[in-house]
Amino acid sequence: MTLDPRLQELLDREEIRQLITAYCNAADRHDHKRMRSLYHEDAIDEHGAMFSGPAMEFIDRLPEIQANMEILHHNVTTINLAIDGDRAEGEVYLLALHRARMPDGPIDVLVGGRYFDKYERREGKWKFLHRAIVADWANVHEPSIIDLDHPFLAGAKIGRPGPSDPSYDFFKLLRRGE
Questions:
Q1: pLDDT (tens digit, 9 = 90+) per residue, 73-106?
Q2: What is the pLDDT of residue 174?
Q3: Is the pLDDT of residue 178 over 70?
Q4: Which of 85, 90, 89, 91 is nearest to 121 (CA)?
Q5: What pLDDT, on the 0 to 100 scale, is given for residue 152?
Q6: pLDDT on residue 177
Q7: What does pLDDT average to over the chain?
Q8: Cβ 115 vs Cβ 133: under 8 Å
Q9: CATH assignment of 5-170?
Q10: Are 47 and 73 in contact (CB under 8 A)?
Q11: What are the domain boundaries of the chain?
């Protein structure tokens, strides 16, 4: 049975949107296993001076790249997609906060930019085929202005990279760490 093309496009858009947001979660939680599952084996990732080349090599280097990242917080906003059968392209707007340990103390970098994405559906599953980061602006605070010890946050759960993040204990349906 063939679906109405409009319904198929909605299903494809939703699966690609879930792929995009899964990337944000995997990056922020330093979940490299999950990150690997989002790309095709022959995919390319261009992350500026940080890395440019095969996505699987990028993911292999993530522990080193993320080692000094105390906080990563990726947010996507506008998602523009064009779908043609089993191929799609996306221009995805993002805001990404990075708090990094530096020799003189932590710094904050808030980047406003876009992902230029190419996706491909193989064996019924959409994954990244090519992802390139485009920086449109950056706001840098040196030293950091983030204060997680402020009384306003007293008693709140505090996010962390990896499985020590409170989401791993809180959620059961979202299946963190699998």
A1: 999 999 999 999 999 999 999 999 999 999 999 9
A2: 82
A3: no
A4: 85
A5: 93
A6: 67
A7: 95
A8: yes
A9: 3.10.450.50
A10: no
A11: 5-170
87 close to 119: Cβ distance less than 8 angstroms: yes
pTM listed for this prediction: 0.93
Rounded to an integer, the average pLDDT of 33-55 is: 96
Amino acid 33 reads K
Rounded to whole angstroms, how far apart are CA atoms 127 and 26?
14
Query: What average pLDDT does the segment 28-44 reach?
Result: 97
Residue 9 in this model has a pLDDT that exceeds 90: yes
Closest of 100, 99, 96, 121 to residue 110, by C-alpha = 96
3-class SS string, the chain: CCCCHHHHHHHHHHHHHHHHHHHHHHHHCCCHHHHHHCEEEEEEEECHHHCEEEHHHHHHHHHHHHCCEEEEEEEEEEEEEEEECCEEEEEEEEEEEEEECCCCCCEEEEEEEEEEEEEEEECCEEEEEEEEEEEEEEEEECCCCCCCCCHHHCCCCCCCCHHHCCHHHHCCCCCCCC
Place of tokens 């879930």: 18
For residue 56, CA distances in Å to 9, 16, 43, 92 come to: 29, 20, 8, 21
Do the beta carbons of residue 72 and residue 27 sit within 8 Å?
yes
**Gap between the Cα atoms of 76 and 69, Å rounded:** 19
Q: Tokens 């089993």 map to which residue?
A: 86
